[in-house]
Amino acid sequence: MTSKMIETPEYKFIKDTIPTEIEQDTILNIVTRDVNTYTHGFHKYPAKFIPHIPKWAITKYLNGNKNKFVFDPFCGSGTTLVESVLAGYNAIGVDIDPLSAMISKVKTTRIDESELKNISSWLVKEIKAKRKGTFKPDCETIEHWFTNDAIKKLSAIRSLINQIPKKFGDSKKVKDIQDLLLICFSSIIRRVSNADNESQKTYVSHTKVKEPDEVNSLFFSQLDLFVERATKFSEITSAKVKSKIVISSSATSLEKKLNGQQIDLAITSPPYIKAIDYIYNQMVELFWIGDLFAMQTQTKQNEKKIKYIGNKQISKIEFSNYTPYNTILSIDKLDEKLQEVYDTDKKNGHKHSYVTFKYFAEMEKHFAEMAKCLSNKTHYVMVVGDSNVSEVFFDTAEFLIDIAERNGFMITNKWGYKIKNRFMRFDRKGRGGIIEIDWVLDFERK
User: Inter-axis angle of helices 52-62 and 79-86, to 10 degrees?
Assistant: First the structure.
């Protein structure tokens, strides 16, 4: 076994703002409370990186020249895109997960303040009228996940949000507000459910019984926050700045998805190996808004999941002919690690080795696609964490550097920062030590 404990690193403490120039291999301890400002705090999201990273990259590489485009090929809940628009730069995001794309869209869309307040006031009044909702989740076990009181109230809110186009028209500004209210609605669902609030996995604990938040009071509180922050965001951002989200994989045909748009800076945090099941994490939310994406049942969710990079839900048939000896990535240390997983984990080694192989193979396709999209000298800043698979340590950052360099990129710097907010971060259950650092890889297109 080569599982290794991570030694306590030497940190360089900084407050709020990351310096433009950082020495290679420096590890920062960023002291800040400033991670959920503006629209950043709209919706909980697993393994979300801090806005300081895109802010640092934008300042370093686009300083002052506003007619530029920032691209995030794994945009998740939109941290890079929000920072780009706030700084006055156009933003394009790609993500395969439709709920993530909708969160990103809402967080980066300017809204009509008077229309938002008008529709919000109507919504609050109608909720207080306590009319019965007509929306029913397509889930046979819904009473396992929610109390009857929560089901009744959530149904009423979702039914009212559905009525918005009929009541207020189907213009773009009304549609944008309806989307914002759907994400506001989604943002309370985990807390009003019977499922544990903090775990990456969506489950109901029978040993630690949860007292769910009351639906209407939490929704009203969250609605106030959304209205205040969306209004502020709209006031301080320019109507000339564009943002666009594409729901798609980042491993294929990226150039086509960008439709010829020149990219001036790319910033992202890709999925980690075998780490987060985003759909499983969002399962209770999808019971209530998954119909918008044809993901309202677990069966439909699982059909989508197989297309996600890093997905570990793989059938035996898919990897039945795989071994790390007959299928290699031609990076000696990485191939040796895959063989070690295969050989030492007698229970799951075959599958785990394949899942990890597939992750790096798909990231190789991604780098090849990115090389087609970026011009020479364009920077691509990527945030990644290392991983343990079957108690074998994978230096993911170094392996991705090797893969990037053979696909048209040059590493110009690598530095890290201490992970502070562990909400929905990795539960490694003590195996191989706690990994505390996210690595920032600064590539340049050759």
Answer: 50
